[in-house]
Design a protein that fits this description.
Blueprint: E1 2-11, E2 15-18, H1 39-50, E3 54-57, H2 64-79, E4 88-92, H3 111-119, E5 127-131, H4 137-151, E6 156-164, E7 181-191, E8 196-204, E9 213-217, E10 228-232, H5 234-256, E11 263-268, H6 273-285, H7 300-303, H8 310-319, E12 333-340, E13 344-351
Helix pairs in contact: 2-3, 5-6
Domain Beta-ketoacyl-[acyl-carrier-protein] synthase III C-terminal: 253-352
Domain Beta-ketoacyl-[acyl-carrier-protein] synthase III N-terminal: 129-201
InterPro entries: ACP_syn_III_C (IPR013747), ACP_syn_III_N (IPR013751), Thiolase-like (IPR016039)
């Protein structure tokens, strides 16, 4: 028995933030000193590295669980199932519900429970819980759904990835331009044909790597040091990703028995365009090859890095035919992969 994604949906916020909207920001170094060059230079360098031109922020009245609810409605409709038949709702996020204009995280009750409530599901045997696994959270949720279904504990699972990172960023940190908001949701069911999940890989590196992403104070020394924001050691993450993600993808693909030439698409966490391109090249180099054209769809240019939402959103856009020069056909083999806080790495090979 295998599992497959029978329904997919995403919610892309309507509030568009362009790079030029950061013109008036006061960006500071970690020690609180100003940069020695204008914001125009900062923004141009940022775009050259990340590929991000625009990003989406959640509408002021919505939180992560709201975005997740909207995406879940679409996934359930796409799967053509009765939501009362869901056995699990697995919600991957990192910061809970953060209301606009605040910095406090709210995770009581769990966001999965909130989505179940919004969906109007009455069945108490539909178990709802959250997972914290960094950006790879949605993929890890799919792997948990796989375990539940294969063990006989479930027949249908709703796996969600949603985040509003725009509400936990330090406006004085240039890395704040990377982050965005969004949600992706998927219905997972058993597959009795050739389609579905073929193999997977998952790992946590928690020695020197554990603190590469962390919660830290603002770079502005005048702000309350006890108010924390998402921070990262970008260079260390870049080097870690280039080392560990291709290796995980290769291990996963080798276990599937699929030849690399038969892989049609690679859906990788939309973190940084240059990093993702380097990961793909490093992955193919492990097989003595170079990546074929159009192997890796991207949505980071217009949507930014929405953490756990990036991979399911990318898949939804691919399925809907909304990614230029990219399509997917029945029987195509796809690799899903991600890397993020923890530091966590995971991947799975999937036949569409």
């Amino acid at each position: 028995m295998k599992i497959k994604i029978t329904g997919i949906g995403s919610y892309i916020p309507h509030k568009e933030i362009k790079n030029t909207d950061f013109d008036k920001h006061v960006f500071l170094n970690e020690d609180g000193t100003p940069f020695g060059y204008p914001n125009e230079v900062v923004i141009n360098k940022f775009k050259g590295i990340t590929g991000i031109e625009n990003r989406r922020y959640a509408e002021d009245q919505y939180t992560s669980s709201d975005l997740a609810f909207f995406a879940s409605q679409k996934a359930i409709e796409n799967a053509k199932i009765d939501p009362e038949t869901l056995d699990y709702i697995i919600f991957a996020h990192n910061f809970g519900d953060v209301k606009y204009g605040t910095t406090q995280s709210d995770i009581l009750p769990s966001l999965a429970t909130r989505v179940k409530n919004k969906l109007g599901i009455k069945n108490p045997k539909c178990v709802a819980y959250d997972i914290l696994f960094g950006c790879p959270g949605w993929i890890e949720g799919v792997l948990q759904a796989n375990a539940f279904i294969k063990s006989g504990m479930a027949k249908k699972c709703l796996v969600i990835g949603a985040e509003t990172l725009s509400r936990v960023v330090d406006d004085h940190d240039r890395d704040s331009m990377i982050y965005s908001d969004g949600a992706g949701a998927s219905v997972i069911e058993a597959s009795d044909d050739e389609t579905g999940l073929l193999s997977y890989e998952s790992a946590t590196f928690a020695s020197e790597e554990a603190g590469y992403l962390y919660f830290g104070k603002s770079y502005n020394p005048d702000l309350d040091p006890d108010t924390k924001y998402i921070k990262m050691y970008g260079r260390k993450i870049y080097e870690f990703a280039l080392s560990q993600v291709p290796a995980a993808m290769k291990s996963c693909l080798d276990k599937s028995g699929i030849a690399i030439d038969d892989v049609k698409k690679i859906l990788i966490h939309q973190a940084n365009e240059k990093m993702d391109e380097a990961i793909i090249h490093r992955f193919y180099k492990l097989y003595g090859k170079t990546p074929p054209e159009n192997i890796m769809p991207m949505c980071i240019h217009d949507l930014g890095n929405s953490s756990v939402a990036t991979v399911p959103t990318l898949y939804d856009l691919l399925i809907q035919g909304k990614l230029e020069n990219h399509e997917i056909n029945k029987g195509d083999v796809v690799i899903f992969a991600s890397v993020g806080a923890g530091m966590n790495v995971n991947a799975f090979v999937y036949r569409y």
